[in-house]
Design brief:
Layout lengths: L18 E6 L2 H11 L2 E7 L2 E6 L15 E6 L12 E5 L3 H13 L1 H4 L1 E4 L3 E3 L2 E8 L4 E7 L5 H6 L9
């Protein structure tokens, strides 16, 4: 079976993926982790709601003017259905050593930032990554991809996606 990456006439004509949603039982705790641990920018436009984005999109920043994600974080009294590892949010870093450093910092600061679990870094599918889960069951990945398997290089090579039946 062949998966077509560029369907000529999709039902929905999207231009990019821009947003995702998360839930938390404590916006203050979540905000502290997003800002202090992952360097994200957070704003709270109303009670129980926060928007989060990468700080690199600031004027003068390296990603300014490029498409970016905005995560919408909603505060809830409880989270009846927890997330699984395959439903995670990822961050890219510049080297394998940066993944190792992230692991050390995450492991050392679990209690301070409400991190429930940190997995040791490992190689998988051309990347080296550490995964961690916060108290709200949101999974996060800090990943280094080898230069030949970065998303940009895959797009530049115009990779044909195929799946064996």
């Amino acid at each position: 079976m062949t998966i077509q990456p560029n369907v000529p006439n999709p039902h929905i004509k999207t231009t990019s993926m821009i947003a995702g949603t998360l839930v938390t039982t404590d916006l203050k705790r979540a905000r502290r982790m997003y800002e202090d641990v992952m360097g994200m920018e957070c704003v709270q436009p109303s009670q129980g709601l926060m928007y989060v984005r990468d700080k690199g999109h600031q004027p003068g920043g390296p990603k300014h003017g490029k498409p970016y994600w905005v995560l919408e974080v909603r505060e809830m009294a409880d989270i009846p259905v927890g997330q699984e590892m395959l439903n995670h949010w990822g961050f890219e870093v510049a080297s394998q050593a940066a993944v190792d450093e992230a692991y050390e910092k995450l492991a050392a600061n679990k209690a301070e930032y409400g991190i429930a679990r940190v997995q040791k870094p490992f190689f998988r599918n051309g990347s080296y990554a550490v995964y961690f889960v916060d108290k709200d069951t949101n999974w996060w990945e800090v990943e280094y991809r080898t230069p030949d398997i970065t998303y940009a290089s895959l797009r530049a090579k115009n990779v044909q996606w195929t799946e064996q039946a």
